[in-house]
């Protein structure tokens, strides 16, 4: 259960939640307004409170997605995205349909445009985990049903929803405001959404990336647009500087799917970016650790990853409640 609002004023406690538009595409955190982000997080918390197996209930919870079919396009494999979506949609009474590259013709014998047109005739929602951002954009352009970006090379908004939900469970609703989120690693799709989402919730954001692996300029610009209340965005190549005064340190895999041939090069270029105890000496007492998984030892050592400060398993579980929230919003449903 969420704790009460802290006593000091919180930015988003004064901003009314704005319902995510029914039938709208969910492509990135950058595309949201702060009130829409607030609405999705509030729904995620409500879903977890109602549907989690340990939640007390005299009667079975409702199934508001009964009759809803969700096409799940997976050009890239995933443990958390597939299991969380299939389980969550089923829990709500919907029908998830997993579509691997060997199951459909997407981009091989059939164009993305034609695939979008066909699936729109069968399904109510299209969730896609793909390689290129252009694929998500083309699906959105030609689908007559809402599209969820479950990962592309530039964005991973479902992960950011889960990360922010986890932080609110630790710090309370609105509790991200005034905190410092520190990133150490690649300037990739994970931090692209997290930096914008953290800024929307009133956080300071500090990002350490090796030279040549910086975040996309347009995402940095969007982050600066939503910063408020004197909060700062700091970009640096120095992991120690980024972690100074951190309330949570976040990292991710250095070598993404499809980059396996770059492993030796990237590990060498990311030397000094492993999250370990020496970085936590720079952080605030009680600072948390997050990683979206799968994790590799060169990114974070065992002491931090399996230690008391780590919330990676809670973070992984919240992938389910947040994707449920997005599908519910797109269908104009709510349990609040």
At the fourth level of CATH, the homologous superfamily of the largest domain is Aspartate/ornithine carbamoyltransferase
Rg calculated over all Cα atoms: 19 Å
Number of strands: 9
Q: Give the biggest beta sheet.
A: 5 strands, parallel
Distance between the termini: 14 Å
Give the key terms.
Rossmann fold; alpha/beta; ornithine carbamoyltransferase; Asp/Orn_carbamoylTrfase; four-stranded parallel beta sheet; 336 residues; Asp/Orn_carbamoylTrfase_sf; transferase; EC 2.1.3.3
Structure characterization notes:
- This protein has 336 residues and is α/β, with parallel strands linked by helices.
- The chain is 38% helix and 13% strand.
- The chain has helices spanning 34-51, 80-91, 112-122, 133-142, 157-171, 189-200, 217-226, 239-242, 263-269, 277-280, 302-305, 312-330; strands at 69-74, 95-99, 125-129, 147-151, 180-184, 204-208, 233-236, 248-251, 288-291.
- It has a 5-stranded parallel β-sheet with strand order 7-6-5-8-9. It has a 4-stranded parallel β-sheet with strand order 2-1-3-4, sandwiched between helices.
- Helix 7 links the parallel strand 6 (204-208) and strand 7 (233-236).
- Helix 2 crosses helix 12 (312-330) and helix 6 (189-200) packs parallel to helix 7.
- The radius of gyration is 19 Å and the shape is globular.
- This is ornithine carbamoyltransferase.
